[in-house]
Amino acid sequence: MRYYPVHSGYPPYTRVNQAIEAAFAEHGRGGVRMPSKVYVGLVENGDFRTMPAYMPALGIAGVKIVNVHPNNRARGLPTVMALTEIIDVTTGVPQAIVNATELTAMRTGAAGAIAAKYLSPRRTVTLGVVGAGRQAEALVEAIAATLTIDEIRVWSRTEKSREAFAARYADYNAVSASIERACDCDVLNTTTPSRKPLIMADWIGEGTHINAIGADAPGKQELDPRILTGAEVFVDDPGQAAHSGEINVPIETGLYDAGMIAGTLGEVVIGKRGRSSPGAVTVFDSTGLAIQDLAIAALIIERDDGYDLPFP
C-alpha cells in the first residue's frame, strides 16, 4: 500500500475538470455504484462523512472520510480535512491512502466548472462569488480553465476577506462588491455555511447560472426558495440533494418537491438534459459525490510518487 501526502504538485484544472466530467458522464449513464454519503454528527463540533463508490470504467473502488468542523479556523486548522482509501477491486487489499483535503476543494470546484460549461448560456462571463474561502477560490480557478472570466464580483461577510480575495484575482478584474452586485452576474458561486437564505430571488437576472455549493448538510441553505421554484434545478445526485443539498430545507418545509428536479449533472453531460432556453435561470445543487473523489485520486495515484506503508 502506498501513501500519497500530496502537499504540492497538484494536477492542473484542465486535467481535473476532464476527469470529473468523465465521472459525471459515467454517473449519467448509470455506470457507477455509489450509495449516499453517511453523516455522523459530533455534538456541536461538526461532523464527519463516509463516501464509498466503485467505478468499473476506471477499475477503481474506495471510500473517502471527510470532516467538516466550522470552528477550526479559530484553531488554526482547516475546516475540511479528508482521506481517501483505494482498494484492489479483485482482492479488497488496500492499495493507497491519499491526503484528500485539497483534492476535495479541487474536485468540488471542477464540478462547478463542468456545470457552468454546460449550463451557462455564455462562454465569456461575469462571475459572482458569495463566500471567499478556499472553496470559492477552487471554483474560480476551475471555471477559468473552462470559460473566459471578464470580471469577478465578490462578497463575503467581512470587508477584509472580500478585498483580499479581489486582490488575489486581480488578473480577472476582481472587485469587492455588495451581495446584490455580486448576484448581478452570468455565473454565481455560493460557498457559505449559511442556514438561512442569503441570495434573494429579486437579485437574480434572466439567464443566470448558479452553482449552489455551500449547502452540504441537513439544515443548510443559501438561496431564497423562490429561486429554486422558478429555476431549472440540476443536482449531482437526487438522494443526496434531497437529504443535504440546497433543496433539503425547502423540501422539508414543503416549498419544493423533489419531483421538480430538472435532472442530474451527469444527464446534462451526456446530453440527456439541459437548460430549456437562454433566458432560464439554472441551479446546480452540489453535495459532492464519492465518484469525484475516486476520479481525482486516480490522477494522483498514476504519478506513483507516494511512499510504501506496510500492509497487512
What does this structure look like?
With 312 residues, the chain is an alpha/beta fold. Helices cover 30% and strands 27% of the residues. The protein has 10 helices and 17 strands. The strands form 3 sheets. The chain has an 8-stranded parallel β-sheet with strand order 9-8-7-10-12-16-14-15. The mean pLDDT is 96.
**Regions with little confidence, pLDDT below 50 for 5+ residues:** none
What is the straight-line distance between the termini? 9 Å
Largest sheet: 8 strands, parallel
Give the helix level as a range of percent. 25-40%
Mean pLDDT: 96
- Amount of beta strand: 25-35%
Spatial strand arrangement across the major sheet: 9-8-7-10-12-16-14-15
> Number of helical runs?
10
| Class per helix and strand makeup | alpha/beta
Number of strands: 17
- Rounded to the nearest angstrom, the radius of gyration is 19 Å
- Secondary-structure element series: EHEEEEEHEHEHEHEEEEHEHHEHEHE
Q: What is the global morphology?
A: globular
